[in-house]
Amino acid sequence: MGRNLKWSQPEPFQKLPGGHPKPVRTAAVLLLMVLFPPFIIFIWYTMIHLEGSVERSYRFFQAKGIRGLRDVLPQPTILACKIIGVFVTFEAVLLIFLPAERYVGPISPAGNRPVYKKNGFVAYMVTLAVYYFLWKEHLFNPGLVYDNIGEIFSVLVIASYAGALLLYFKGHMAPSSEDWGSSGNILGDLFWGMELYPRITSHFDIKVFLNCRFAVMAWAMLVISFAIKQPALGMFGAGLACNYIIYDCNVQRLLFINSNGKCRIWGKIPSKIQLHYVTEWGERKHSLLLTAGWWSVARHFHLAPEIGLAICWSLPVLFKHAMPYFYALFVTATLVDRANRDDKRLKQKYHKFWEAHCKRVRYKIIPLLY
Q: What is the DSSP string of 105-164?
């Protein structure tokens, strides 16, 4: 049944915004897959070897051309493979074996409801505790991560291509559920994936592992490793404040949803907009839009502290070069685009109710600014 099933909504490759012709979308995906790995190496070389000077980096590559990229390309090493391999194995074990509540996700296009293991926060705390223990007992030097970050990048680039190919063949040969399909374009299938919920047995969700366990946990460990290598923890207090606001925004939203609006936010009964809408299957639904707490400051205010956090990570280097602020600029552009797309999608879904919400909560991300 599953092998001949088509997506019950527009195929993934054709959901790219903008309505561009298929050749344009194909070229865009190809460029992303081909150009991003060398771009990562360019950033690494500029930051590590040229003190973040884009001008010096430009002069270097202008003089040497593509050969310059080959000359500075960090080669995969056994040590880099060991660091990644041990971390991947450890996080996989935590995902599978840590005690967890059962969390049921939303209904999928094919009518399935994915089941998740809700043990991410416990896994995060265990990861931090074990990492601290290994450091304090001199069993592992976190500074090695910084010293070998170029080699780690190279291993990850190779692994990402290999992983995409494996998921592509798995999607064709052994899809995990009926939520799968092909866009009719090999590059599109490689880039977007064939399956909505790829799994290995019922206990290991590949998407959750790659996004939430490997990537997010590694992100935290990279920050800690680099901080250990460089004792200056500038903007530490501001960064903690941003982290807290992100956390509290999500807490308020979940509290509001789980209590159906019958709760207190910032000590008050929260204001809300009651709405109804029709799904793509013709079902009439009722819901609530929160307009209190952080969600009264801006419609997507939870994105503002994420931008602030990225800026906090860059500010300690001051303003000698622009490259250290690449991540902050990239995150800002990405999240502004995300807010715009969310507004457009929610307006199409809720119509006049979303317009009423926009009148009540005027700003998208940052009050008085945007």
A: -PPPTTS---EEEE-HHHHHHHHHHHHHHHHHTTS--THHHHHTHHHHHHHHHHHHHHHH
